[in-house]
Amino acid sequence: MALPLSDYALIGNARAAALVSNTGAIDWCCLPEFNSPAIFAALLDGERGGYFSIRPVGKYTSRQRYLEGTNVVETVFETADGQARLLDAFVVQSEEDKGRALFPDHELLRVVEAISGSITFQLEYMPRTYYGKNTPRLQDRKQLGVHFAWHENIYTLLSTLEPGQLRVTESMATAEFTVEPGTQAIFSLSYSSQSPAVLPELRETGFQRMLQSINYWQNWSSRCRYEGLYKEEVKRSVLALKLLTHAPSGAIVAAPTTSLPEEPGGERNWDYRYCWIRDASFTVRVLVKLGYTEEAHAYMNWILHATRLTRPKLQVVYSVFGHASLKEKVLGWLSGYQNSTPVRIGNGADKQFQLDVYGEVLDAVHAYAPLVETFDRDTRHFLLGLGQIICRSWQQPDNGIWEIRADMAHHTHSKVMAWVGLDRLLKLARKYKWEDAPVQKFSETKDRIRESIEEAGYNQELHTYTRAFHGNDVDASLLTLPLVGYCPASAERMRSTTKAICQQLLKHKLLYRYRGVTDGLEGGEGAFGICNFWLVEVLARSGEPEKARELFDTMLAHASPAGLLSEEMDPETGALLGNYPQGFTHIGLINAALALNEVYQQQEQPYAYK
């Protein structure tokens, strides 16, 4: 059986990532990019997927954590003979360090050292190419490492083991080795895209690169300027977001994994190794508030670049390089996580119409605006063009925020985000004195959208906003209305809506995004991570901070020991579900923590919505 997702922690270098378990196995790794074919995919098929395992021989217990302020994972093993630890990281270095020596495109570094006693470890290295479909031929090149190539890619495993300790066949490498206090065993898996490959030196400088990586992450996380409630959880979340950031482009992927199921054994298995435009506004707010202006600039530049191929329209999802076509395919040879099939790559949401993304992008630009004095002419025309599309399209049905694969509808949340888009454009036009902005048109359309929402998106008999116009059910996207400034959280209509959402969607203090909706798929799903944090923020801002904090703590109780959260969780078992870790969930955690902290700081005064 596959390990629970909570038994994994994420490592990466802001280009690629890997999941390492508390049993010492790297069961998921794609190189050289987030959405490259996996070389280790045991997460999706334990027999065929491939893995890289380092664990004690015989019985042991283990515990896993991140070294403080870093994305370096420490797994401590305890046996009858003693204790040892395994450090796992992708090498990350400052520009100064990089200038001192040649380095490969990627290096995954694993260091084993004894804490007490003498412990014997077993190493198993079994890479596979293209998500476990192919078995590469390993070549033992002695001091030059265990080598294999696939297309133009070159992968090399190096170690500090003595000659002959590493036994290599055509399909796998194995070893047994013993560590005692004062000794280390170091392993390096490097990737290069050119020949001859750059091979990192290991015996003299290998551990130094681990220390450089620790120092890099501690320096980066120390830039977080938040000092309030849940400080450590906020810092861990922003470190997780950094792992999901694609440094060359500035993009942030939704998650580093594909096809982790929203329901064990079910078909709701999607590839999240791409960038959703809808995440933009909440993400930019987080980066700006926490002081990560460099990342905010990079992310906004990516949004402006990625959308060029589809302008003036926006697509729902793009690759990190701005590719607009993400053809969805099924990998039929993989059994799936916990036998959940199909395993998919690509994402069919690239073909959907979701009205809300226009408002999300414009809201993000408005949140980003304090960092720039002006926007260039092309950007201004692009933003005003988004407003024109909203004016033309706001009365059309769409697939909505939840990417429903059934009939389109007039989703209330989508209409609200259309209102938000025009509201932010009008503010930007005033701020930057855009004389060519059709202010009257935007203002009149904005007013018509609000009238339509209040008339058709609110059910007078049920006293609640509804999931779709003229409907009689709610969904959790309605919680964003006060979060995007459409109305105060304390407004009468919003209070009654929040109450209805809690009554209909809460189970064991965890919130589903919707229930009983025909979404074109079989089976069900878990409670939705970010929706819980939206509820926390709304409750905090509507005068119920204690209830909000109780729900926040419930979410924290479902995080992995390493502090990571997935897309969803099972209210019955507490198991993490869906792709992991999920950036959107951690963005929600940060915004909810900031809201709670703000409210608690103002408790001596009447709370005023801003």
TrEMBL record:
Residues annotated as domain GH15-like: 230-541, 548-593
Q: Which is an annotated Pfam family here?
A: Glyco_hydro_15
Query: Coiled coil where?
Result: none
Q: Which GO terms describe its biological process?
A: carbohydrate metabolic process
Q: Name one GO molecular function term.
A: hydrolase activity, hydrolyzing O-glycosyl compounds
Please, which domain of life does this record's source organism belong to? Answer: Bacteria
Cleaved signal peptide residues: none
Location of the Trehalase-like N-terminal domain = 2-159
Family annotation (PANTHER family) = GLUCAN 1,4-ALPHA-GLUCOSIDASE (PTHR31616:SF0), TREHALASE (PTHR31616)
Protein name as it appears in the record: GH15 family glucan-1,4-alpha-glucosidase
Species annotation: Pontibacter mucosus
